[in-house]
Design goal:
The complex is a heterodimer of chains A (about 110) and B (about 120).
Chain A (H helix, E strand, L loop, with lengths): L3 E2 L5 E4 L4 E7 L6 E7 L6 E7 L2 E5 L2 E6 L4 E6 L8 E8 L10 E2 L3 E6 L1
Parallel strand pairs in A: 2-11
Antiparallel strand pairs in A: 1-3, 3-8, 4-5, 4-9, 6-7, 7-8, 9-10, 9-11
Chain B lengths: L4 E3 L2 E4 L5 E6 L6 E7 L5 E8 L14 E5 L5 E5 L8 E8 L9 E2 L3 E5 L1
Classes of the chains: A mainly beta (about 110), B mainly beta (about 120).
């Protein structure tokens, strides 16, 4: 069993929809949680960074962490065609400084249709 | 440069040949990482360099893989005697020192195809 599980999709939604992307994990030591967005033929870029349980909002994006359930989510409000990409969750037991190795999910492919 | 630069962007090679992949990190960044992204798999950590410290090689899958970083800047990932299972996108990332939640900046990767 993988340490981090993520539904690969593809997930197709109409423009303006609310999108929910999720990951589950098994390692209770994970404390730092990230969401990356990866466009085709590009490297991942960091979208959201959260520590421990709780919510964090940034514009149309909200990240939620439920450590008791070992479950994290990314919500995208008012989705746009430009949001079409692969979304990867990532997590670590220590901050991503000093060479920490992130454990990534496999990514969920999202397509927002006009 | 403005971002992390990787070359070549695509590499096709025959099984058994050696390949070299290059990464040019963001100027001033002291930390450099190599990851591998295979179809249907998450990003897999390979190796990490921090300044002049000994690299963390714990993610290298076999002794056919090696990497070096010259002058604390450019890095080269070498795969010897390539196998078909080495086919993947090889991503390089760099980050600077400073805050504990420092951001990793990724390059666009090298798509390696071993025939």
């Amino acid at each position: 069993q993988k340490e981090v599980e993520q539904d690969p999709g593809p997930l197709s939604v109409p423009e303006g929809a609310i999108v929910s992307l999720n990951c589950t994990y098994s390692n209770s030591a994970f404390q730092y949680f990230m969401w990356y967005r990866q466009y085709s033929r590009k490297g991942p870029e960091l979208l959201m960074y959260t520590y421990s349980s709780g919510n964090k909002e940034d514009g149309r994006f909200t990240a939620q962490v439920d450590k008791s359930s070992k479950y994290i989510s990314l919500f995208i409000r008012d989705s746009q065609p430009s949001d079409s990409a692969t979304y990867l969750c990532a997590m670590s037991a220590t901050p991503t400084g000093g060479g920490n190795k992130l454990t990534f999910g496999t990514g969920t492919q999202l397509k927002v249709e006009l | 440069g403005a971002g992390v630069s990787q070359s070549p962007s695509n590499k096709v090679t025959e099984k058994g040949k050696d390949v070299e992949l290059r990464c040019d990190p963001i100027s001033g960044h002291t930390a450099l990482y190599w990851y591998r992204q295979s179809l249907g798999q998450g990003l897999e950590f390979l190796i990490y360099f921090q300044g002049n410290s000994a690299p963390d090689k714990s993610g290298l899958p076999s002794d056919r893989f090696s990497a070096e970083r010259t002058g604390g800047s450019v890095s080269t990932l070498t795969i010897q005697r390539t196998q078909q299972e080495d086919s993947a996108v090889y991503l390089c990332a760099s980050s600077g020192l400073g805050s504990t939640n420092e951001k990793l900046f990724f390059g666009s990767g090298t798509q390696l195809s071993v025939l």
